[in-house]
Design brief:
The chain is of the alpha/beta class. It is 47% helix and 14% strand. It folds into two domains: 148 residues, Alpha-Beta Barrel (nicotinate phosphoribosyltransferase), CATH 3.20.140; 197 residues, nicotinate phosphoribosyltransferase (Alpha-Beta Barrel). A six-stranded parallel sheet has the order 5-4-9-8-7-6. This is nicotinate phosphoribosyltransferase. One of its GO terms (cellular component) is cytosol.
């Protein structure tokens, strides 16, 4: 079977978000659904739904082992443990929910519905399994050859590393590629090879298993589903508007400064900066960019800091949207020395083997039966029923019209 341990397919931020849900929203029922944003590829042409169901059923039988729990219990922040004892205890008894494979209108979907602190883990498991099965099917069909794939992938990886070293980028690259890695062995090779060749460039990983096995620094904060779920739970437009600020304040209460990287684009960065406020801006570490023009966003955040009397050189931007090596170098040239930056590099790092990738996401679509919505700074990434999206656009004063193809 493809999944042999839960941490093998687990991004660190699934744990930090799971604890958040465990502490503040333990009984909220959340439904997740698979979305293939690459319209030119029908997964049913390549993946047998019954085989996918068997893989996911097997993953549901897995449990965290003693070493994994020990690793989590030992994570520390500057003033507290990352994970509370009651949360670690809950992980000892964690049983993943059913991940149901269904066919809808000629397309494959995976649906998960369970209490939020339990359902939240399924996202990266489903995405990584589907992606790996897709590329295995391409190899089985003779469209790509495993040996050629390896050498082409290594050539591309080495070329990226060479460019980053030549650019003098510094230690700023975090591997964010769990969900769309070509395969587990390939992810292991990418991190190991990158770290061996350029320890002054490779900063760490978001993958829990990689951190356990190799001692890499591990990174992760939170994702769009946090804003999406809290807004869906609101009983009025006023509560919807307040939900984002409640998320920020509860997150700070739970984790403090060390994990205070705010995701800005769920309902548009315009709303984020209008409500972040001087007090939060002063104490939070920084922000993560995940949609829209990265250069415009960087300038926007620097301007926001300066207008609030904050030195941007004391803050961070984590860029994580559709990165490739040339964009990373260009962003570094623009912002290095003006603000602290790092790069959460995903698909183009861990699945660049000379064959087109597919853009898969698995998002929260409902919370306690209410539809979830994501707007984003790129309308191609918007999620939710049209009527709900239109309502959120009105409530959040969203006026962005930018669109870009979701390559990764």
């Amino acid at each position: 079977m493809l999944v042999t341990s839960l941490t093998q397919r687990l991004d660190y931020y699934k744990l930090t978000m799971a604890q958040f849900a465990h502490v503040y929203y333990p009984d909220v029922m959340v439904e997740y659904s698979l979305v293939n944003r690459t319209k030119s590829v029908n997964l049913l042409d390549w993946i047998d739904p019954e085989e996918l169901q068997r893989e996911l059923d097997h993953a549901s039988t897995l449990r965290f082992d003693r070493d994994e729990l020990k690793f989590m219990a030992e994570r520390s922040l500057s003033d507290r443990k990352v994970f509370r004892a009651d949360f670690i205890q809950s992980l000892r008894h964690l049983h993943l929910p059913e991940m149901q494979v269904v066919t809808v209108d000629g397309h494959v979907d995976v649906v998960v519905k369970e209490k939020w602190p339990v359902a939240i883990y399924c996202e990266t498991i489903v995405l990584s399994v589907v992606n790996q099965m897709y590329f295995q099917a391409l190899m089985d069909a003779g469209m790509i050859d495993a040996e050629t794939l390896f050498w082409e992938g290594k050539f591309r990886l080495d070329r990226k590393i060479d460019k980053l070293i030549a650019a003098g980028i510094g230690r700023k690259i975090i591997e964010f590629g769990t969900r769309r890695a070509l395969a587990d062995l390939w992810l292991d090779f990418v991190d190991d090879h990158f770290n061996d060749r350029a320890p002054g460039v490779f900063l760490g990983t978001s993958n829990v298993r990689q951190a356990i096995d190799h001692g890499y620094l591990i990174f992760g904060t939170y994702a769009h589903e946090m804003d999406m779920v809290l807004a869906a739970l609101a009983d009025s437009d006023e509560e919807m508007l307040a939900a984002h600020e409640r998320l920020l304040d509860q997150w700070w209460e739970l984790y403090g400064y060390d994990l205070s990287i705010a995701l800005s684009d769920t309902f548009g960065s315009k709303h984020f900066f209008a409500t972040f406020g001087k007090e939060r801006a002063a104490k939070w570490k920084g922000v993560r960019h995940d949609s829209g023009d990265a250069f415009e966003f960087g300038e926007m955040f620097i301007t926001f800091c300066l207008s609030n009397g904050i030195d941007p050189k004391e803050k961070w931007i984590i860029f994580s949207d559709g990165l490739d090596v040339d964009m990373i170098i260009a962003l570094n040239q623009r912002f290095a020395g003006r603000i602290n930056i790092a790069f959460g590099w995903g698909t183009n790092l861990t699945c660049d083997i000379g064959f087109p990738t597919i853009s898969l996401v698995m998002k929260a679509i409902a919370a306690n039966g209410r539809k979830c919505v994501k707007l984003s700074d790129n309308l191609r990434k918007a999620i939710g029923p049209k009527a709900e999206i239109d309502h959120y656009v009105k409530v959040y004063g969203y006026d962005n019209r930018a669109e870009a193809v979701c390559v990764y």
